[in-house]
Specification:
With about 260 residues, this protein is of the alpha+beta class. The protein has helices at about 85-90, 100-110, 120-125, 155, 190-200, 205-210, 245-260; strands at about 15-20, 25, 30, 40-45, 50-55, 60-65, 70-75, 90-100, 115, 135-140, 150, 160-165, 165-170, 180-185, 215-220, 225-230.
């Protein structure tokens, strides 16, 4: 899709269906990593698909696409294979969420049927027991990992629950290896919002301004007495890690930029 100027209209709270968090893994005991701005996914019923990626080594990005089929998966994804071939190889366990707001919301809710706490998850993964039949997907309802989905199987994850990661595929190329994107661990919107508010108060509110009004970054040019306005557009990456001396410096700059959104 072309690079469109802000506001990106699907970026509204009603279309915020899920987000992703980066987790640390210590022998099957998982924890949420600090130093991240989780990605946000906005999807509507006319199959607009927005991946809002505030912080990444490649920079800030609002990715705008049409027609994406969304899955959650655990195990070893082989990007040389199609989704069907990956499933046939029994190296991944997956949950198909769909490609529109109504279907994805319904499948996220259905995926919460089996629930356990963070402590119960850690206890199970520390033991050597098979995943109970019909409980391949679990939703974490308490503790530090609340709001995340885990899943697994005997063949894909050796009977351990692993985070269910984001996978979205181009509907037009669903039976090929073209255009697949995989991301971090899927979490419900409430958990993403809580993460932001506990660590970066007000940043979520600022991020959502990209769906409400035109956003631009103004850079002063001291030698001329003028300034340069850089419009924020979809499908354009801004300020990659290579422009900064450290990851912390990139994060600090992007936080300042996002907080300027109004």
């Amino acid at each position: 899709m072309p690079a469109n100027p802000t506001p990106i209209r699907p970026v509204i709270p009603a279309n915020f269906l899920l987000g992703t968090l980066r987790l640390a893994n210590n022998a099957g005991q998982y924890s949420i990593e600090d130093g991240q701005f989780p990605s946000l996914y906005f999807i509507d019923n006319v199959v607009n698909f927005i991946r809002y990626r505030p912080l990444h080594r490649d920079g800030f990005l609002i990715s705008e696409k049409a027609g994406r089929e969304v899955y959650m998966y655990a195990g070893q994804w082989n990007d040389a294979l199609t989704i069907q071939a990956n499933l046939a190889a029994n190296t991944i366990y997956s949950v198909q969420l769909g490609n529109n707001k109504t279907t994805i919301n319904a499948n996220l809710l259905a995926s919460q049927a089996n629930q356990m706490s963070t402590q119960q998850l850690n206890t199970f993964n520390a033991a050597n027991n098979p995943i109970p039949m019909g409980q391949n997907t679990v939703y974490i309802n308490a503790g530090p990992l609340q709001g995340l989905f885990f899943g697994g199987s005997a063949t894909a994850t050796n009977n351990k629950y692993q985070p269910l990661n984001m996978l979205d595929l181009d509907l037009a190329n669903i039976n090929t290896t073209t255009g697949a994107h995989w991301g971090h661990s899927v979490a419900m919107p409430q958990s993403i919002t809580s993460f932001y508010e506990s660590r970066f108060p007000g940043l979520m509110t600022a991020l959502l301004q990209a769906g409400q009004s035109k956003q631009e970054l103004t850079i002063p040019l001291p030698s001329t007495g003028r300034s340069l306005s850089i419009p924020i557009r979809s499908n354009v990456q801004y300020f990659p890690r290579t422009m900064f001396d450290s990851s912390a410096e990139q994060q600090s700059f992007l936080m300042t930029m996002i907080r300027s959104f109004s």
